[in-house]
Design a protein that fits this description.
six-stranded antiparallel beta sheet, 13% helix, mainly beta
Length: 92
Amino acid sequence: MSTAEPIASAQKKVLVAGNQQSGWWPVTGEQTEPVRVMLLNFEIQFDGSGYLLCYSSEGALLYGDSWHVSENEARQAALEEFGVQPNEWRHA
């Protein structure tokens, strides 16, 4: 059971390759794998000691998370990995 507290959320259409079973990744340049556009839901959660950047597509076809020391670090990871701009975040 998660006790993480939502801090902020965002949605973004992201070009992705791969799948949940074999691995997936956001596309940032030349890509040889088949790609598609997915709407991802992002949430930053505070777990008592750090911040989780959680992301999932509709129906949870693709999902993942990463842990960060600060909320700003989580937002920076979302910007660098998925292109989520600072003005796209909403406070939870």
